[in-house]
Design a protein that fits this description.
The complex is a heterodimer. Chain A contains no helices and 12 strands. By secondary structure, chain A is mainly β. Chain B is mainly β. Chain B has no helices and 11 strands. Chain B starts with a strand and ends with a strand. The chains are: A mainly beta, B mainly beta. Chains A and B meet through strand 5 and strand 6 of A and strand 5, strand 9 and strand 10 of B.
Chain lengths: 112, 118
């Protein structure tokens, strides 16, 4: 079945540091790929998405590129802020009845 | 656009009682809604897929008689936890997929409901 593997956390960075959270996947067919962010006590918010190979999703300074050859969708941000502290989930929606599969989440803490 | 609400946001109940959680798509119609459960510091676990006008499809290991799902309209799905017990305490999150979207379109998530069973 489909699966998503995320870089284990927690990740602690200083403000303005460069962020990379790795995500790799296995799926049949051509899934859509997503990054979601969850703040404490809240639901998930879509951060960015990509629906086909070589697409780059971007939002709020975050970027991720759909790499089919390496089955990856790594999340990057050039300069993180304290307000970026949250849990980040990589996910895919595959051809299996349109269900989504989530990674385990990576907790990011940004210190001033 | 694409806002999903959940009610209540937080509920505390006694063991043995039933609790209903509502999930609404506020500005779009959703033929498909999903119900997830999230334990502390863990990922989301899909419980069931709710389709308007038909029975929900439950994931393996999820008791359909305990977690009753009703997708009454294109904007409302409800999850009822029957005879709740402390082990049912969790964060329940719903999501909805837009009516016009294909199977791979984005899901929009509700803010979640924190259930505590005493």
């Amino acid at each position: 079945g489909d699966s998503v593997t995320q870089m284990e956390g927690p990740v602690t960075l200083s403000e303005e540091a460069f962020l990379t959270i790795n995500c790799t996947y296995t799926a049949t067919g051509y899934p859509s790929l997503f990054w979601y962010v969850q703040y404490p006590g809240e639901g998930l918010q879509l951060l960015l998405k990509a629906t086909k190979a070589d697409d780059k999703g971007s939002n709020k300074g975050f970027e991720a590129t759909y790499r089919k050859e390496t089955t990856s969708f790594h999340l990057e941000k050039g300069s993180v802020q304290v307000s970026d502290s949250a849990v980040y989930f990589c996910a895919l929606t595959g051809t299996n009845a349109g269900k989504s599969t989530f990674g385990d989440g990576t907790t990011l803490t940004v210190k001033p | 656009g694409a806002v999903v609400s959940q009610h209540p946001s937080r509920v505390i109940c006694k063991s043995g009682t039933s609790v209903k959680i509502e999930c609404r798509s506020l500005d779009f119609q959703a033929t498909t809604m999903f119900w997830y459960r999230q334990f502390p510091k863990q990922s989301l676990m899909l419980m069931a897929t709710s389709n308007e006008g038909s029975k929900a499809t439950y994931e393996q290991g999820v008791e359909k008689d305990k977690f009753l799902i009703n997708h009454a309209s294109l904007t409302l799905s409800t999850l009822t936890v029957t005879s709740a017990h402390p082990e049912d305490s969790s964060f329940y999150i719903c999501s909805a997929r837009t009516l016009s979207g294909g199977a791979l379109d984005t899901q929009y998530f509700g803010p979640g409901t924190r259930l505590t069973v005493l």
